[in-house]
From TrEMBL:
PANTHER family: HOMOSERINE DEHYDROGENASE (PTHR43070:SF3), PTHR43070. Residues 163-354 form the Homoserine dehydrogenase catalytic domain. It catalyses: L-homoserine + NADP(+) = L-aspartate 4-semialdehyde + NADPH + H(+). It comes from the Bacteria. One of its GO terms (molecular function) is homoserine dehydrogenase activity. InterPro entries: Bifunc_Aspkin/hSer_DH, HDH_cat, HDH_CS, NAD(P)-bd_dom_sf. Keywords: Amino-acid biosynthesis, Methionine biosynthesis, NADP, Oxidoreductase, Threonine biosynthesis. Belongs to the homoserine dehydrogenase family. It is an enzyme of class 1 (oxidoreductase). This is Homoserine dehydrogenase. Pathway: Amino-acid biosynthesis; L-threonine biosynthesis; L-threonine from L-aspartate: step 3/5; Amino-acid biosynthesis; L-methionine biosynthesis via de novo pathway; L-homoserine from L-aspartate: step 3/3.
């Protein structure tokens, strides 16, 4: 029987999403190979200052739960030096198949991901920051991917594991024209405002979003709408719009910048609760909603919808994306569901790794 070539996974990040990702990949390895022909091994897991090399380590990590202690100090910075020990051990990328996976929450990985794409190494990312916040990054990544047919997959940057980017790309590549996307893209804000809409106190709704793993490492990123903003920018860029983060007409959710979450608790929390209470109207639900239109208008802010509309049927933490297109006419294509959270996001990243290993762009 012909043996499938091995795809070596280099994973940046081993946090709330990264840890379950290793587990899912290892647990489902035989099934993945049987059903897709992709034989996957871990080459390395890289953290902020340490690295664990080799599939055997990843295997033992999966056996032992979420932590393993065989991390060694890694080269500082985020340049190709970080990957050198991996290439020394498993071979150079021209002779070895790799997929580079970013499940960190930092801009630091951006240059390395671009270098990898330039070397023909497929990139999978759930990290929105380089795509949305680093000027020109998304356009460079997409060009590098298209020029050499190197997969660049970022499904989980928007809507977690929901098929949002793939739906958008499929609509566009088959010649449909996207007129407008309206979206509730933040799982945290859906959880928080959905809970609040149903009468949960704001602090309890925020605690729920954090407990369920929706929040970013700094939860103020979600509460200030920055994470939702990143997602709307990624949708707009995927539509082919030249949108930068500063171009979005954003209604801020918080009354001021807070240095950290502790500083927000207390007065900040009370002021946000008062604002959301004031926005309440009988028979309506209020969410933090983004939209991106073909004419280049991109907006984000609090919007109220009739309880009797699809918005009134959303469960707290559900995302919804409504794509209005020329072909679909009056009835938009709708993608909705709970896509965020560590396990679901990890499953979406794993699906992207398999597609990248199959060279799906
Ligand atoms: N939670 C969710 O529902 C979803 C999350 N995402 C995205 O997934 C990503 C990961 O989120 P989450 O797991 O919660 O984040 P965590 O903060 O839990 O984990 C981040 C990981 O990145 C590592 N890291 C930080 N800087 C570097 C660096 N320079 N090089 C290598 N590793 C680094 C950290 O290392 P160390 O362990 O040393 O601290 C940590 O392991 C984020 O970008 C998030 O937006 C996307 C969709 C949904
Ligand atoms: N913090 C994000 C996680 C997924 O991207 C969110 O709340 O949606």
């Amino acid at each position: 029987m012909k043996t499938a070539p091995t795809t070596h996974v280099i994973q940046l990040g081993y946090g709330k999403v990264g840890a379950p990702l290793v587990h899912l990949a290892i647990e489902n390895r035989a099934r993945i190979e049987r059903e897709t022909g992709v034989h996957m091994q871990y080459a390395a897991v890289v953290r902020s200052s340490s690295v664990a090399l080799g599939d055997d380590l990843a295997l033992r990590a999966a056996d032992r739960g979420a932590s393993f202690d065989e991390w060694t100090q890694r080269a500082p910075g985020m340049t190709l030096d970080v990957l050198d020990p991996i290439f020394d051990r498993f071979g150079l990328p021209d002779a070895t198949r790799y997929v580079l996976v970013d499940v960190t929450a930092t801009a630091e990985t951006g240059p390395l991901l671009l270098e990898a794409l330039g070397m023909g190494i497929p990139v999978v990312t759930a990290n929105k920051i380089p795509l949305a916040e680093t000027p020109g990054w998304f356009e460079q990544a997409r060009a590098a991917s298209q020029q050499a047919s190197t997969p660049f997959r970022y499904e989980c940057t928007v809507g977690g594991s929901l098929p949002v980017i793939s739906t958008l790309v499929d609509l566009m590549t088959t010649g449909d024209t996207i007129q407008r996307i309206v979206a509730l893209p933040s799982s945290s804000l859906s959880c928080i405002l959905g809970g609040f809409n149903r009468g949960l106190p704001l602090d309890a709704a925020i605690a729920d979003a954090m407990r369920r793993g929706f929040a970013e490492p700094n939860p103020l990123t979600d509460l200030a709408g920055r994470d939702a903003l990143r997602k709307i920018v990624i949708l707009a860029k995927t539509m082919g719009l030249p949108t930068s983060i500063g171009d979005v007409d954003q209604e801020p959710l918080l009354d001021q910048d807070y240095p950290d979450f502790d500083a927000f608790q207390g007065n900040g929390m009370a002021r946000l609760a008062a604002r959301l209470t004031a926005a309440r109207q009988p028979g309506m639900v209020t969410y933090y909603v983004g939209s991106t239109s073909a004419d280049g208008t991109v907006t984000l802010g609090l919007r109220s919808f009739a309880q009797a509309s699809v918005w009134g049927t959303l469960e707290p933490s559900e995302n919804i994306f409504l794509f209005s297109t020329s072909r679909f006419g009056d009835l938009p294509v709708v993608v909705r569901g709970i896509g965020g959270g560590p396990i679901l996001t990890a499953s979406g990243v794993l699906a992207d790794i398999i597609k990248a290993a199959q060279r799906q762009i």
